Amino acid sequence: MPLNLFLQNLANGLSLGSLYALIAIGYTMVYGILRLINFAHGEIFMLAPYFLFYGLLIFHLPWWASIIAAVALTSVTGMLSERIAYRPLRNAPRISVLISAIGVSFFLQNLAIVLFTGIPKPFFRPKFFKNIYQFGGVRIQSTLIASVIISAIFLALLIYIVYKTKTGLAMRSISTDIETSRLMAVNVDKTVSITFIIGSALAAVGGILWALRFPQLFPFMGMMPGLKAFIAAVVGGIGNIPGAMLGGLFLGMSEILFVAFLPALSGYRDAFIFAILILILLFKPDGILGKNVQEKV
Amino acid sequence: MELLMELLNVDNITMKFGGLTAVSNFKLKIIPGELIGLIGPNGAGKTTVFNMITGIYTPTINKIYFQDQDITGIKPDKIAKVGIARTFQNIRLLENLTVIDNVMIGFHLHLKSNLASAILKFPGYVREEESIYHKSMELLEKVELEKFKREKAGSLPYGQQRKLEIVRALATGPKLLLLDEPAAGMNPQETKDLMSFIQKIQNDFDLTILLIEHDMKVVMGICKRILVMDYGVTIAEGNPAEIQNNPEVIKAYLGVDADYA
Amino acid sequence: MKKQNEKLYTVLALCILAVLVYFAEKNLDAYNLRILNLGAIYVTLGVSLNLIYGFTGQFSLGHAGFMAIGAYVTTLLVLPPYYKEMIFILEPLVWPFTVMHSPFIVALLLSGLISALVAILVGLPVLRLKGDYLGIATLGFAEIVRIIANNIPQVTNGALGIKGIPEFSNLWWTVGVAVFTVYIIKGLINSSFGRALMAIRENEIAAEVIGVNLTYHKVMSFAVSAFFAGVAGGLFACLITTIDPRAFMFVMTFNILIVVVLGGLGSITGTIVAAFLFNFSLEYLRPIEAGFNIGPIVIPAIPGLRMVTFSALLLIVILYMKNGIMGGIEFSWKGLFRFIRKIFPNKKSSEGSAM
Q1: CATH number, position B102
Q2: How far apart are CA C5 and CA B254, in angstroms?
Q3: How far apart are CA B160 and CA B164, in angstroms?
Q4: How far apart are CA C43 and CA C278, in angstroms?
Q5: What are the backbone dihedrals phi and psi of residue B86, each rounded to the nearest 5 degrees, phi first?
Q6: How large is the C-alpha radius of gyration of chain B?
Q7: Does B261 reside within a domain?
Q8: CATH code for residues C29-282
Q9: Residue A143 parent element (H or E)
Q10: 3-state secondary structure of A135
């Protein structure tokens, strides 16, 4: 493969990977705190571009207002889903919450069908994002650069929040031991809500960037990216935020390079991701950055 | 006098978890019929030794022999089959199953029926099931738990849960029984009952027993030989009198609590 | 209650069931028959998932994968060769599938066996995982099966799927298989093997130390579960007469999971009830999509409203009935009579003394 083509693929992989990373962070934070696989996260990701679409086209809001509104609305949706469907089940057997999460996922998908119809809507791209920069033989879309830069900014912000603020300390405390945290006067409910808001906001940003890159909206658009982002979180070490970032990048790269090197097998690109998942689970279940916590006998 | 065959030979084993050495150069030879105590402060590595003998961990260095057979690293279910049974520090009962089911499972490893005859309920299988049921009831009667046979194991009071766990271990028909802190959480009366119970089952079932305990009444009361561990190393071995007077042991452990008279 | 009496009651109940099936087949229209057939197939699917999840405690989300395998195996065996030649338009069907042709029952059995075989191969490495990790690994497996089905048109006709499958599945088949499944799995559970499975569910380490071979029991349970999922897949194919990879997405496993959890994990009775309840609710919610009135408020026809309502109802049930519909209680003749005696204290007392 000629070098410039390889670099092109690498750049694509990086961009796709950073989108997966943004979504994966939400999964990993929620799992870290509640030991819940938030199946509905993919739908949160899906709602943001729809909100943006309606903000721009139906309500004719300016760009910046639409984006803020979309991200805000999406975050609220995420927070509400926790309040309504997960919080009441906090002391129920874990399978109940899992089913509830899947239920929320299907509810949101079908709600989207009802509200927005299932017909795919074209997303438009503002002039700014239509630029293509040329580095040597490599063509890079500005959406690509935007996703990488924006993801990096948000990751840095997130790491600051988690490791340098009281809220972040509360989050880390809850993910270790929820009962003791309560005894230590940590406001668990508030912290969980904040976690969902942050995770949903990141997924919303990811969703908007995704729609800029793949400008077609449909209600099921969150399923596969959501699943893959979850796999990315597992690969990086579930519960570990830098791990989610790393996992996302790794998965994005792997997917693009797989298709690049084995174009005949491109129909299997998703199966490849699942295969990576199974291999990681079998050989390094705690992921790339995870820690090995063994059950004490 | 005939030379008694060694039942268990733990041959200088060491257990490392990554950079941490939990147990180092642990040696123990047990002949049939002994009642041995393993004591030491928390974290000394006693349960780790149990876990190595029962196949939950594989010793990093050296081997363990049972009746001259190398059992190092064999999985726990095979260990049960060769005749070693154990109980756990934090009781591991099958909580949602009935008391009698908990015991009946102990008899499984002696079953001859296969899957097909179990589904189709062949007479051979049905006979085996009935025999297991009766044997389980006998064991329950020995500890006066037979009236709880249909209760969920998790609903029993703590002391009875411990007894049930021991009875379940007995159901596997062991030659060597490992008890991990059986007296934990028991009041003085229960502890006394436990002591006579242990001696009774040793007699009735022809058992050799290795016991981890913190309660010195129990250890000094029924054990003929005692090993003391601290920080993964055996620091003393001997009979109760020797151990009580051993300065190393006193330093590591016995200094504070002296009411084992 | 004596064992003989119990067997008698069961045989009697089966006879009544047979009569009901006969009348249903004769008198009900296709629409209602379809719902009943689906209900029965879901019983098979639910009870088999309950075996590996409710009883053995292994959280498997791979059921749709085994169903898919079974569906394609049955389809390829049950379609006559000339027809297969016709419909494989993306790429010609590959030998030996071109010449294979067998009766329905053979196809079903083979579907089950092949699914079971795959389960053994997959289960050996994967069942070492626990909890959520096992869940996503098996989910990954099911997705891989689906993606493969999409990408091997020379065997499956790819994304186009296969249409015109003969409609062999009628109530006799679906209910018959359901009864057989319940019989076998109940027999399994009420045996020493079943006890070992539940021990694994309760406390793996304790079970191992008592002498239970974890790998053997987990893999066998997984294989039996997959067997019935495969058979159900075959029945499914010959009921809806078209299959394509999209039918076996995660939604399918999730539906089966709902049935098992709503019915109560570890309760076969619950699964049976939930299977029919689930299918009935889905169907009878259809009118919502046509538009209706609540007093003065007019709700127009909105496509998709059915599923929104269904998901909402599901969430409500989950939030308020945590132990499942049956509360974990299993059906038994003894239990039934005790219940009847509680409601009618004097009527059945003579019956009671005989027990």
Answers
A1: 3.40.50.300
A2: 65
A3: 6
A4: 11
A5: -150, 160
A6: 19
A7: no
A8: 1.10.3470
A9: helix A142-164
A10: strand
Name subunits touching C (3+ CB pairs < 8 A). Answer: A, B
Q: pLDDT digit of tens for each residue in chain B (261 aa)?
A: 445 688 999 999 999 988 889 999 999 999 999 999 999 988 889 999 999 999 999 999 999 999 989 999 899 999 999 999 999 988 999 999 999 999 999 998 888 767 777 777 888 888 888 999 999 999 999 888 889 989 999 999 888 899 999 999 999 999 999 999 999 888 899 899 899 999 999 999 999 999 999 888 899 999 999 999 999 999 999 999 998 888 888 887 655 554 454
| Partner-chain contact A114 C305, CB within 8 Å | yes
**Residues with Cβ within 8 Å of residue C242, at least 6 apart in sequence:** C161, C162, C163, C164, C165
Tell me, what amino acid is at C9?
Answer: Y
Amino acid at B33: G
Q: How far apart are CA C230 and CA C209, in angstroms?
A: 34
**Structural contact between residues A296 and B92, judged by C-beta atoms closer than 8 angstroms:** no
What sign results for the dihedral spanned by CA atoms C88, C90, C94, C97? negative
Contact C263, C275 (CB under 8 A): yes
Residue A295 backbone phi and psi in degrees, to 5: -70, 135
Judge residue C301's burial from the number of C-beta atoms within 10 Å of its C-beta, 0-12 exposed, 13-18 middle, 19 or more buried.
Answer: exposed
A&B contacts, CB < 8 Å: 4
B132 touches chain C (CB under 8 A): yes
Cα–Cα–Cα angle for C91, C93, C99, rounded to 5 degrees: 165
Radius of gyration of chain C (CA): 22
Nearest to A158 by CA among A97, A67, A237, A242: A242
Q: Give the chain A residue whose CA is nearest to the CA of C251.
A: A106
Note whether C318 contacts A95, CB cutoff 8 Å. no
Identify the domain containing residue B196 by its residue range. Answer: 8-25+33-254
- For A217, the 3-state DSSP assignment is strand
Q: Which two tokens stand for residue C145?
A: 């099966």
Distances (CA, A) of A186 to A29, A193, A240, B139: 17, 13, 21, 49
By C-alpha distance, which of B198, B170, B172, B178 is closest to B86? B178
Interchain contact C150–A (C-beta under 8 A): yes
**Cα separations in angstroms, B222 against A237, B191, B200, B237:** 49, 12, 11, 16
Cβ proximity of C106 and C76 under 8 Å: no
ipTM of the complex: 0.89
- Calculate the alpha carbon distances from C245 to A58, B25, C43, C86, C279 in Å: 37, 59, 22, 20, 21
Side-chain-side CA neighbours of B4 within 13 Å: the count stands at 11
Q: Which residue from C303, C311, C318 is facing A96, i.e. has the nearest CB?
A: C318
Would residue B217 count as lying in a domain?
A: yes
Question: Which structure tokens are listed for C2?
Answer: 């004596």
- Say if CB C211 and CB B83 are below 8 A apart: no
- The pair of structure tokens assigned to B99 is 């008391």
Domain total for chain B? 1
Helix runs in chain C, H state only: 3-27, 30-50, 63-78, 81-87, 104-126, 131-151, 153-156, 171-189, 192-202, 204-210, 214-240, 250-263, 268-284, 305-320, 333-343, 349-354
- Cβ-contact C292, C299 below 8 angstroms: yes
Q: Nearest 5 degrees, angle CA B89-CA B92-CA B98?
A: 145
Which of C186, C192, C205 is most worth mutating to test chain B (most B CB atoms within 10 A of its CB)?
C192
C50: left (phi over 0), alpha (psi -120 to 50) or beta: alpha
Residue A89: which residues within 8 A CB-CB, separation 6 or more?
A96, A97, A100, C318, C319, C322
Residue type present at position B68: D
| Nearest of C114, C222, C268, C240 to residue C174 by alpha carbon | C240
List the beta bridge partners of residue B228: B39, B236
Please indicate, yes or no, if residue B2 is contained in any of the structural domains. Answer: no
